[in-house]
Amino acid sequence: SAKKTHRGHVALHNAAIQNAYLNKIKLKDKLKAALKSNLLTVYYQPIVDVQRRKIVKFEALVRWFDDEQGMISPGTFIPIAEEFGLIHLIGQFVLEKACQDLKEMHLHGYEDVSISINRSVNEFKTSNDQFKLVTQAISSAEVPFDKVTLEVTESMATNRYTWELLSKLREQGVKIALDDFCTGYSSLSHLIENQVDYLKIDKSFVDSLMADKNKKVMINCLLNLADELGIKVIAEGVESQSQLAMLEQLGCNHIQGFYYSPAQPLSASLRLLQEFNSGQVFNDELIYISK
Ligand code: C2E
Ligand code: MG
Ligand code: MG
Ligand code: MG
């Protein structure tokens, strides 16, 4: 009967939810174990100042290599870490490692290079340890405060407490980037009120730029506004020469994406600096040099 079919459908639906939940719990336990056994590491993706033809910054991106599953994407495990209260552990690990690795880059002679570190909303929610944790990590790595950027998303911008904390860090010299800008609902008032140093245009927007005239108009306005406000704009997820050319033409000078390089370990990043920033590889052609 219809009733029976309906009941069967509900049962199937419940089973699917239960299954998803169990998988989540499994992954959470695995993540806990991985954190204990130091299976997480940090990779670095260069951000290039196109005009100056230099890597000016690296974004620190957490990596988890699992024996069975291979690389598990942060897009998968960061939300789980947030849900189950593990994000503080990951955040602290990445923060310390990134600051230490930045020191390493500076010791190799690339003292102008800075690091950009992602922060999750839950890391700022409750206490003001964040101020202490961030300033301590930077101090103990002995890198200048103004060479460290924290990337936050717009959803965090609605929390007044978070912004108080960020502005306290900013007073110490730490830079703030608004990540994933132009996804969903973007508010210009965040930019004007909250005083950020960088704006990161999300890959999805970069992807739509070529085909959509209105998006070009919009990004043009945004670049002008950012310029007026003294904010630097970084385009994320740039994969092709034509995207790069378009962004350059629009006046977006800071580029991050596979066109240049994916995120790589510190050793490879140091090699990248050596080749790229010394001008050896860089002639008129912009070259993909990650290999
Ligand atoms: P995000 O902060 O927006 O980082 C940029 C993401 O885009 C990275 O993915 C990067 O590998 C990817 N990407 C960069 N250029 C290209 C490109 O040209 N093509 C394509 N297809 N992708 C590109 P990833 O490393 O998988 O990280 C995903 C997200 O996970 C990050 O997005 C960030 O929200 C979060 N995440 C990563 N590491 C951390 C961390 O240490 N802490 C926190 N809280 N979140 C992190
Ligand atoms: Mg980011
Ligand atoms: Mg981003
Ligand atoms: Mg993004």
TrEMBL record:
<feature type="domain" description="EAL">
    <location>
        <begin position="24"/>
        <end position="277"/>
    </location>
</feature>
<protein>
    <submittedName>
        <fullName>Diguanylate cyclase</fullName>
    </submittedName>
</protein>
